[in-house]
Structure formats: C-alpha cells, structure tokens
Amino acid sequence: MAKIILLALENDLAEQLRPILRRQGHEVQAADSLEAPEIRKADILFAGGDRPDYRNIVYSLTQRHPALPVVLVNRHPENRRWLDALELGAADYCGAPFEAIQVQWVLDSLKRRQLSRAAA
C-alpha cells in the first residue's frame, strides 16, 4: 500500500481516480499547494496536468522532492503534455478516462523503478 497525494487535480478527475486507487489498497489524500505538508510523507504524487501552470508544478515538485515519483494527470491524453512532463522530471503520465488496469500498470512501473534504484 502506498500513500498517494492528488495535487491540484480538478474535482471530477480526483473523483474518478480516488476510488480506483483506494480499491487497489492505497491511502489517498488531496492537496492544493506545493507547500502542503502531506507531500513530504507521500510515496507517489499525481499532479494535475490540465492547469496552465502544469510545467511549473512538475518542475517545482521534482526539484523540491527529487525522490518522489510524480505522475502528471490530464483530462485528455496529449503527446505534448506527456513529453513535457517526462522532460521536466515526471516519472509517468496518465490520461483520463482512468481504468484500474492502466493505473495499476503505472504504479507497478514506478515500483519496479524504485526497486531497481534501491538495488543499484
């Protein structure tokens, strides 16, 4: 079970993602700002990618919390945002509509990366 923070996600996206994560056994909390104290205790962070300042959010998070995997979440999957997110240091990208298998794949991918870093 991971502690997952949903940062700056629009309510409808958070309401789609939250039950999927909870059914998979994760603890899920919402945060509205980069300074939220919950972020320091998170294992994974899903950040809103529909905001005009999504680049600043991803960059700031990856600079402040380099070990924290950030997944950019977007209402409509877009190649440009996906590439932007990865270039800015995000660990992955996830577009709506969310499906349990897709979310699980993203989380499994993050876990494999963390395990391989720990083994190195």
Please tell me about this protein's structure:
The structure is a single chain. The chain has 120 residues and is an alpha/beta fold. The protein has a single domain, classed as Response regulator (Rossmann fold, 3-Layer(aba) Sandwich). 44% of the residues lie in helices and 20% in strands. The chain contains four helices and five strands, in the order E-H-E-E-H-E-H-E-H. A five-stranded parallel sheet has the order 2-1-3-4-5, with helices on both faces. The two termini are 23 Å apart.
CATH architecture verdict? 3-Layer(aba) Sandwich
DSSP strand count: 5
Label the structural class: alpha/beta
Q: Helicity level, as a percent range?
A: 40-55%
Distance separating the two termini: 23 Å
Radius of gyration: 13 Å
CATH class: Alpha Beta
- Strand order of the biggest β-sheet: 2-1-3-4-5
Listing every helix as H and every strand as E from the N terminus to the C terminus, the arrangement reads EHEEHEHEH
Q: CATH superfamily name?
A: Response regulator
Strand content: 15-25%
Brief rundown of the structure:
The protein is α/β, with parallel strands linked by helices and 120 residues long.
Secondary structure: elements and pairs:
Layout: E1 3-7, H1 11-23, E2 27-31, E3 44-48, H2 54-64, E4 70-74, H3 79-87, E5 92-95, H4 100-119
Parallel strand pairs: 1-2, 1-3, 3-4, 4-5
